[in-house]
Batch of 2 targets.
Target 1
Amino acid sequence: MPRPIQATIHTEALRNNLARVRAAVPDARVWGVVKANAYGHGIERVFEGLRGADGFALLDLDEAQRVRDLGWRGPILLLEGVFEPRDLELCSRLNLWHTVHCDEQIDMLATHKTHQPHRVFLKMNSGMNRLGFTPQRYRTAWARLNALPQVDEISLITHFSDADGPRGIAHQVAAFAEATRDLPGERTLGNSAATLRHAQAADVRADWVRPGIAIYGSAPDFPERTAQQWGLQGAMTLASKLIGTQDLQPGDTVGYGSSFTANAPMRIGIVACGYADGYPRHCTTGTPVLVNGVRTRMVGRVSMDMITVDLGGVPDAGFGSEVTLWGRASSGAVLSIDEIAQAAGTVGYELMCALAMRVPVVVD
Ligand SMILES: *Cc1c(COP(=O)(O)O)cnc(C)c1O
């Protein structure tokens, strides 16, 4: 028998989350962001649940190829654009729309031989200072692109740094609106947080939104709001089983570094899941976990292949009992990936992206 750990991708949750995003911005088209192998879920595994999107946005050309191989003929957008001139040939062949964020990418287009002009998304650095042309340089870049026979339609794109936090997006929206006021072309601004939190701002709705994390069922602004409060459902469950138990006496310690000490008699369960499966090693005693659908806590340190859990509230649990690390238990009980991420001092994005290769994945 294989080791009992398994991840499950929930097609119905993906559909629900996409519908939830659409409801927030009914007039916008929706890019399903499937970069990083669909945030660790697997592009091929999420495709069925997300095929109702208007397009797919990603970074890697081989991921674009995989989306085409699935039979998708609609829009695909490369969020970082091309990395070298010959990538443009693949863009032509696969009909990919691509971001243009720097002069070097315009230079590549200018020397590209193509019969089919490209649709590009000209990126503005409206304050995040990662990719894009500053508002002052944006128009020059637009004019350069507009003069190229290799370019057909120019759309306008920017990205927010603080859509999930107190600073918000108003300053970036203003910079973008000001610098693009009389430019033609479709606009796309909002990620998940902007789409859910700031949908009332007409500028955010724009023509397209670009949700990633929300469609995978994690709250973009946890813990201010939970996935449940946003009506989102976790699209990934990580589950395993107990492969042993131990009865502890007061003073007994658990695991590497003896970081947990029992102060009363207690029973613990040993779970076939560790950091080599993608469970974060930064989680410590107290991190929530479901055993037989009942919420309990991890004790001690996460090791490579195992964690240890308190069975105090789950007296019927034993060898083979179901353990839910995040996601949905067979009882229907839910443990949000955001809670585990918080316990590890990180965000849901990182956990889902870090699901390890050795974990078998099924789709339901
Ligand atoms: C990753 C990404 C998104 C999606 O962001 P979420 O926070 O996951 O919704 C949107 N736009 C761009 C440019 C991105 O790189």
Target 2
Amino acid sequence: MNRTALRICPLCEATCGLVLTVDGQRVTHARGDRDDVFSAGFLCPKGASFGALDADPDRLTGPLLRKDGELSPATWAEAFQAAATGLGAVTGPYGGQAVGVVLGNPNVHTMAGALYPAQLVGALGTRSVFTASTLDQMPKHVSSGYLFGDPNAIPVPDLDRTDHLLLIGANPLVSNGSLATAADFPGKLKALRARGGRLTVIDPNRTRTARAADRHLAPRPGTDAALLFAMVHVLFAEDLADPGDLTPHLSGLDELRTLAADFPPEAVAAHCDVPAEDIRGLARELAAAERAAVYGRLGSTAVEFGTLASWLVDVLNVLTGNLDRPGGAMFPLSATARAPRPPRPGKGFTTGRWRSRVSGHPEVKGELPAAALAEEIDTPGEGRLRALIVVAANPVLSAPDGHRLDRALAGLDFMVSVDPYLNETSRHADVVLPPPPPARSAHYDFAFSTLAVRNTVRYSPPAVPLAPGALDEPEIHARLVLAVLGQGGPAADPAAVDAQAIQRRLGSETADPHSPVHGKDPAQLAALLGGRTGYERRLDMMLRLGPYGDGFGADPEGLTLAKVLEHPHGIDLGPLRPRLPQALRTASGRVDLVALPIAADVPRLRAAVDRGAGGPALVLIGRRHLRSNNSWMHNVPALTGGTNRCTAQLHPDDAARLGLADGALARIKGDGGEITAPVEITDTLRPGVVSLPHGWGHDRPGTRLTAAAREPGANVNQLLDGTLLDPLSGTAVLNGFPIQVEAAG
Ligand SMILES: Nc1nc2c(c(=O)[nH]1)N[C@H]1C(S)=C(S)[C@@H](COP(=O)(O)OP(=O)(O)OC[C@H]3O[C@@H](n4cnc5c(=O)[nH]c(N)nc54)[C@H](O)[C@@H]3O)O[C@H]1N2
Ligand SMILES: Nc1nc2c(c(=O)[nH]1)N[C@H]1C(S)=C(S)[C@@H](COP(=O)(O)OP(=O)(O)OC[C@H]3O[C@@H](n4cnc5c(=O)[nH]c(N)nc54)[C@H](O)[C@@H]3O)O[C@H]1N2
Ligand code: SF4
Ligand SMILES: [Mo]
């Protein structure tokens, strides 16, 4: 008997609502939910393949435990007991600091990943936390931290209302958007142009998005910060800077003008390889637009000057008066955020409260660079990482120098992976704890609701019940927290982990004079929580304490989980609204346009600009494919093949100069090693740029990725040695790093 079930797609940041057809326990079909208040029916080929991904026969159905060197099936009780014992054997003599926690991308796509890792890290008391952020968007957090005092206050382009969108290093027609959650990004760009708006794309590759734009500029990779600085220069020099209503909330405008004086378009033109007149034109158009937004993504963050470029994106939004106004770049207000309090100065943002042991990298948002993970394990000495808990991460493929990390993982005393696959990373684990497939998991977008271009609230309960004997991912996380605390036995109660989080939040809320529940009894409030599970009770609590919440009765019309459940297609909370100065957490209570660490990094940029056109002859940039997602979607035959292949794209001039024919095998060398990949000649790239996708290299033994291993591809991150970072954020330079290319054999 077929039935349908609604499920928010967890496969990318667009968060489309899907209608799943379920036959018994199996998802046989997926289509876009036309009634979804956010996505209105949009879906992409990955969402359409939800059933195939869900039913991948290589998914692990139960825990694996290493016995006599071999991973073999075990019961959950055995697995958690082994985790408690193995971790205890490290924390006993060396302390929790000897255990690292590695959190990968899917943690922002699962409820468990949003709710439990902080408790896990807290239970360990470790400062060795590594996440995909330092392979991705950490520069944006740092720039928001300095500008607004809150690293999570990330303005998003108000796509539905803007007249002018400047996209820098983003390819939303393929990625479906990132740090700007918008289902049907392609449709929204089309609508922008249909209403007479203008789309400009800055990208060294003439991507699908660039081809859909009114204007495309292809600068040399890694030079966006200089280009954006020159735009700021033009705004000041031509008296076009006009922050409007923002002015009383700004500090540092004069310092900014002084810094920008050093970056006239003529000075950066050779470095960026963009004519000065084009840069002037970009600035003038931006200033002239009624409502405009500048938006940067991976090509502007995972680069040498990632933090400066991310900062300049919002500096341009400020100077053109577009920050925090409709049609500009605005701050979403998620339903599970804390209800807004009256504006007041905050503590501000700092980094470097501690440093990494080997290279002395500063902590950023409590994290150390993912690129430094291997050295923290394999460099002898006191404080060495001896054990690792890896949740939803595959750093052997996604972080620099996989070979070194691969060896380092093999040398750990103990490793736990929470992962549905036995892959390049989890194959090293002593205990593998597999979460159920997405159809059997509940879903709420804690992270992406804070980045969505429209405020909505949607929750999907599991579409299919758990298989007998399976644990949902929240319970796996909760039991892992207990295992860290030495409570690995079957008597340990995972509900205690949720209860602790609830108690803590309600304790702080009831003590806060600005909270709707000030002065109430936390235990009584806890008793009012609805939800069938611990994670649902936590969601109910967050919704009720949130900006649209019922405040536990203070506003009977407000949100509760029960109310959200009554609206399976979601509740629309309206377009984005201005949030300044309330959203600011800087010590000054203003937008700090020029924080000291930012100013201190400008001379490094100036030095690069002074080198002009002098740089490596060939640099590498990344690319994404619509039917792929990072390192873990190559095992679904429906999603591979066609254009989704691991090829080295080269411009025809470069291919001719290097004597490489289309389809020939190229050897590509970087500081971290070399790989071979078939050549694909295309004139979409600017000359001097080679493009390779990441997440490939499925040829290591001991994995269980049957389909992916048939066409393994090469791991682009083997070209990196982990030393090339944006210093302010610790983010790896994945775009615009030097390589050499030659014909292979
Ligand atoms: N050269 C280069 N490298 C890059 C990038 C690039 O553009 N170029 N991009 C970077 C970026 S932006 C990112 S975000 C990182 C991503 O890198 P990672 O954070 O390592 O993420 P993935 O490669 O997606 O691997 C995700 C892991 O989670 C597992 N998984 C999938 N679903 C679930 C689930 O529901 N629960 C759990 N517990 N596990 C699950 C998968 O099996 C897989 O092992 O890669 C980065 N690496
Ligand atoms: N289909 C699909 N969708 C995905 C993913 C996926 O793997 N596949 N991954 C998801 C994840 S984890 C993320 S973080 C997002 C990323 O989302 P996006 O950032 O939109 O995706 P990318 O394809 O990495 O786009 C980066 C663009 O920057 C360009 N670029 C490279 N170097 C430079 C430079 O120096 N300057 C400029 N201006 N541009 C440059 C590249 O050519 C590329 O077009 O996508 C998400 N969505
Ligand atoms: S665009 Fe993203 S969220 Fe939407 S169906 Fe595709 S993968 Fe899923
Ligand atoms: Mo990412």
